[in-house]
Design a protein that fits this description.
The complex is a heterodimer of chains A (about 450) and B (about 500).
Chain A: H1 2-11, H2 24-50, H3 57-78, H4 86-105, H5 114-134, H6 139-142, H7 145-157, E1 172-174, E2 177-179, H8 181-206, E3 209-211, E4 214-216, H9 219-239, H10 242-260, H11 263-283, H12 285-295, H13 299-302, H14 309-320, H15 344-377, H16 381-405, H17 423-445
Antiparallel strand pairs in A: 1-2, 3-4
Helix pairs in contact in A: 2-3, 2-4, 3-4, 3-5, 4-5, 4-15, 4-17, 5-17, 7-8, 8-10, 8-16, 8-17, 9-10, 9-11, 10-11, 10-16, 11-12, 14-15, 15-16, 15-17, 16-17
Chain B: H1 2-29, H2 31-35, H3 42-47, E1 55-57, E2 60-61, E3 63-67, E4 74-78, H4 81-88, E5 91-92, E6 96-97, H5 99-103, H6 105-109, H7 119-125, E7 133-136, H8 140-150, E8 155-160, E9 167-173, H9 186-197, H10 219-228, E10 245-246, E11 253-254, H11 266-272, H12 275-285, H13 287-297, H14 321-327, H15 338-349, E12 353-355, E13 360-364, E14 370-373, E15 379-381, H16 385-401, E16 412-421, E17 432-441, E18 449-455, H17 471-484
Parallel strand pairs in B: 1-7
Antiparallel strand pairs in B: 1-2, 3-4, 5-6, 7-13, 8-9, 8-18, 10-11, 12-15, 13-14, 16-17, 17-18
Helix pairs in contact in B: 8-17, 10-12, 10-13, 11-16, 12-14
């Protein structure tokens, strides 16, 4: 750690003349706002459902505030130049997610998910603090790129040994807790991709054969790409998890493009992706039915079998209108299975309306934008690719699941970052925010008034 | 690399824009059409989320609501279900609504925009109005008298106030408890199946949704037509009618149960119900005259709503003279609801005026502020006032010395007409005993009540002309109940 720190400092350019403001006070006030908004949402649910403030309102607010302030303290201590928007957005989305899950818990008295989610959120914030405190410089990760990819592959293959849950083999169950190791694999793969591409981008960018306007890669460097493609398809076929494979592939294509700037890669990537998707879409019944549901969500209603999940989700969004029914007053629970996890956005859409939903989307957009901005400001290729990769994970994931539940694209099971019920997802997202805090701290600390190369 | 990161950012903006545009389209433009999808349970849930408004009889609610805590939360309850079932109908989570529950559903469920002081404000806040109340015109004592009077027999009673058209009693027997159909559990399904497979048809509203051959009670209409058209000018003048009467164009000979009907004057023929006289009078009036008279009284009217629909009573207008003769004594294709025959009696009692009957006095917000009131209804003069006066005389004679003596009430003027209608192939069905009447207390300035009673399974022997035996006592108790109640206004 110390060794890495010195290595980094010797590689750094001379101390910048202009230093940016730290903006920790802005961060603190935004965190206070985020906590207050979450507590307000919690109280609004209680008032709407029972006419009284929910009994745990104070405890909930205090717990969320303590977590947020601890995280803020860690940032203040070890990443004083970090982007002041990242942490408040994480707190607000996590707080809103807890409110939505608590609200849905009231409809399913037998299954309380909010307390468990609160435990996982605590673990996530703990991981956040750990990463911010321990990881002094993101370039340290570059050295462990191959450890990361091995770990990622191990995590991805682990659930194959466990029984399938609801058609997908992506869970491992230990005791009462179920873990989705694929979630953690995302971050590890992003680290690996960033490191691999930072090292090989020249070879990928400047060798190969021209075919018309396209510059195609040579066979030698095509190997890893094909390997990643096979990995994605393997995940898809073995675990029946369309969302994760789509995310991996999209992440790789984005990073490849950012690293090399070659449209040819995009063309090859899209070709392979669509070939894989079409083949799997036809061959795999689980995926095929999802495509059918997307093309005609009301087919089951006409067939007299009642509305399916996607149809219920569409009804839910439609019921929200512009201003929503208000927290606690919607009926998104009609979606039934996965209402708290994959379909949690429908509750936001119905009860907060288009206004609230747009705000949520813009929060994600802001989070992603801050990630890209850090990538733009950084100077080292690994850091830039890592920032872009982490931000792209959030962007792609939000688009894939939000597009799925609103009927824009076929539904693929995925967790809405921070909002959805699911411990692995929350922990992973806090890790992503922690890494973004770290890279943004480096980016803004080394800022010298000039545009990055 | 900076350029490519910017491209990636642009890609992110494209994704975000796609999501925002798509959700805006979904939530704003598609919203209403998805909300109306029959598979969407939200409108149903909203409908049962608050207690339903009340239906009031004589100032007291006969309905209530029960909080089940289930998804379709409030279920309907009825304080005296079978008694008021022909008025309230049922309000079921599974089987929908009927009768008043159906006709006034928007008020009761709170969706009527009139219930809100500021309609647009509610659209904005998504607040729901509490269900409004429906105040009926019923007289609880008359309703109870009719219900107990019918007892275990199949039949129906309709009573109206002649001067206004307010319906005072509407009873159908056998009845059922609509509370059994509230909710959507398996017990509701069982009750529904049982009620629908019951040969006694307890859910059939016989007072307004079933038509019967009116038999001799239709002679009131025929007499009115004969007097109004001048076919008969003097009640006591012989009518030049044979006994038996050969139906024109046939060899069928129509006979009488009563005696001394040959050439009987109208007074005698009405009092003792001579079929031959009225058959001939109908033929003398002619198809056009009889049709006009019947339709004036309300026959062949498909549009009557009280506010729920009433089965149209029918008088066949495409008959030959022989069929007209039968039609004029309430047979052949002549059919009437009990409510229609009550309207006939009311027209006689009220100087020849028919008023559209109604069941809802007013609807109110849950606090009692009126939303809509029945207001004054227009009256239709269907016969000359002098004709009405002479018919009153005839009907009073029936009760004082004719076939309807069992309807006489001490201290009141009562006019009535009995009837027994045969039906079924070869007249093999159970006969229907009818009695239509009206009453005016000695202190009253106007007739207080007109009643029609039909009893399906009359134990009367076939051919018995005296609907007076079984139906008249029921009419009497209903009239007494109304006369004992002080006038409403």
């Amino acid at each position: 750690m110390t060794e890495a720190g010195t290595a980094v400092s010797t590689a750094q350019p001379p101390a910048p003349a202009v230093r940016l403001a730290r903006r920790r006070g802005v961060e603190l006030s935004l965190i206070v706002l985020a906590v207050l908004l979450s507590v307000y949402g919690y109280c609004a649910v209680g008032l709407a459902k029972h006419g009284t403030l929910p009994p745990g309102a104070a405890v909930y607010g205090a717990g969320l505030a303590v977590l947020a302030l601890l995280a803020h303290g860690a940032v203040r201590l070890r990443a004083p130049y970090a982007d002041p928007l990242l942490l408040p957005i994480g707190v607000l989305l996590n707080g809103l997610g807890l409110v939505l899950i608590y609200r849905l818990d009231l409809e399913t008295p037998g299954e309380r998910a909010a307390p468990i989610q609160l435990v996982w959120s605590t673990l996530g914030v703990a991981l956040f603090i750990l990463v911010v405190l321990v990881l002094r410089d993101h370039r340290w990760l570059q050295r462990y790129a191959y450890v990361c990819v091995v770990a990622a592959l191990a995590l991805l293959t682990l659930p194959i040994a466990f029984p399938a849950v609801n058609g997908a083999r992506i869970w491992i169950r230990v005791g009462g807790f179920s873990i989705q190791p694929g979630e953690f694999a995302k971050v590890l793969l992003a680290v690996f991709f960033a490191a691999y591409l930072a090292a090989n981008r020249s070879a990928l960018a400047f060798t190969g054969r021209r075919l018309g306007p396209l510059q195609l890669p040579t066979g030698r460097v095509l190997g890893p790409v094909v390997a990643i493609w096979l990995l994605s398809v393997g995940v898809l076929v073995l675990e029946r998890d369309l969302g994760t494979s789509l995310l991996f592939f999209g992440l790789f294509v984005v990073l490849l493009y950012v690293a090399t700037g070659r449209i040819g890669w995009i063309a090859v990537g899209l070709l392979l992706a669509s070939a894989g998707a079409v083949a799997v879409g036809w061959l795999e019944p689980h995926v095929h039915s999802r495509v059918q549901d997307w093309l005609d969500p009301f087919a089951s209603i006409r067939a007299g079998q009642g509305p399916g999940q996607v149809a219920q989700s569409l009804f839910s969004f439609a019921a929200g209108g512009v201003l929503g029914t208000g927290l606690g007053l919607g009926h998104s629970i009609l979606i039934g299975f996965a209402a708290k996890s994959d379909f949690v956005l429908a509750t936001a859409g119905e009860e907060l309306g288009l206004a609230g939903l747009s705000a949520v989307f813009l929060l994600y957009g802001l989070l992603v934008e801050r990630g890209y901005r850090a990538g733009l400001a950084l100077r080292d290729p690994f850091g830039r690719l890592l920032a872009v990769g982490l931000a792209s994970i959030v962007a792609l994931q939000v688009f894939v699941i939000a597009g799925g539940v609103t009927g824009l694209i076929p539904l693929t099971g995925m967790a809405m970052p921070f909002l959805a019920q699911g411990g692995s997802s929350v922990v992973t997202n806090w890790a992503i925010v922690a890494l973004l805090i770290r890279v943004s701290d480096v980016a803004r600390r080394q800022y010298d008034g000039t545009v990055a190369p | 690399m900076t350029r490519y990161i910017r491209h990636a950012t642009a890609f992110g903006v494209v994704l975000l824009t796609a999501l925002l545009v798509h959700t805006a389209w979904l939530q704003v433009l598609q919203g209403p059409s998805y909300g109306g999808n029959p598979a969407n349970r939200r409108p149903t849930i909203a409908r049962y989320e608050q207690p339903r408004g009340r239906i009031l009889v004589g100032g007291r609610a006969v309905t209530g609501s029960r909080d089940t805590g289930e998804q379709l939360r409030y279920e309907r309850t009825y304080t005296q279900g079978p008694l008021y079932a022909p008025v309230t109908g049922f309000a079921s989570q599974r089987y929908g609504t009927t009768l008043l529950e159906h006709a006034e559903d928007r008020v009761l469920s709170g969706t009527d925009p009139m219930l809100s002081a500021f309609p647009l404000w509610n659209d904005f806040t998504r607040a729901q109005n509490p269900g409004g109340d429906v105040v009926t015109t019923l007289d609880p004592a008359a309703q109870r008298a009719a219900y107990t009077g019918l007892g275990a027999r199949r039949g129906a009673v309709a009573a109206i106030e002649p001067t206004t058209g307010r319906i005072l009693a509407l009873v159908s027997a056998p009845s059922y408890d609509p509370a059994e159909l509230s909710g959507n559990g398996p017990a509701v399904t069982r009750a529904w199946n049982r009620l629908n497979s019951d040969p006694a048809q307890p859910m059939l509203n016989r007072a307004v949704r079933q038509t019967y051959p009116p038999g001799s009670t239709f002679k009131v209409v025929t007499a009115a037509a004969a007097l109004d058209s001048g076919v008969v000018t003097d009640l006591d003048e012989p009518t030049d009618s044979p006994d038996p009467y050969t139906l024109p164009g046939t060899t069928t000979r129509l006979a009488n149960e009563a005696e001394d009907c040959e050439d009987a004057p109208l007074r005698y023929a009405f009092e003792f119900s001579c079929n031959t006289v009225f058959a001939k009078l109908g033929v003398d009036v002619g198809v056009a005259g009889m049709r006009a008279a019947a339709q004036d009284f309300g026959f062949n009217d498909r549009g009557l709503r009280i506010p729920f629909s009433v089965a149209p009573s029918s008088f066949d207008t495409t008959v030959d003279r022989g069929q007209l003769a039968l039609s004029s004594i309430g047979q052949y294709n002549t059919r009437a609801t009990p409510l229609q025959m009550a309207m006939v009696a009311a027209a006689v009692a009220d100087g020849g005026q028919v008023r559209t009957p109604y069941l809802v006095e007013r609807t109110t917000r849950s606090g009692g502020d009126p939303v809509a009131t029945a207001g004054s209804r227009s009256a239709r003069q269907v016969m000359h006032p002098s004709t009405a006066e002479r018919l009153q005389e005839l009907m009073t004679d029936v009760v004082t010395e004719g076939t309807g003596r069992s309807a006489a009430i001490r201290g009141a003027t009562v006019g009535g007409k009995t009837g027994t209608a045969q039906h079924g192939v070869g007249n093999t069905g159970m006969p229907y005993a009818w009695f239509v009447s009206w009453a005016q207390g000695r202190g009253d300035t106007a007739p207080r009540v007109a009643v029609a009673v039909v009893v399906e399974d009359a134990s009367a022997r076939r051919g018995d002309i005296s609907g007076g035996g079984t139906a008249a006592p029921i009419a009497k108790s209903v009239m007494e109940a109304v006369l004992h109640t002080p006038p409403a206004r």
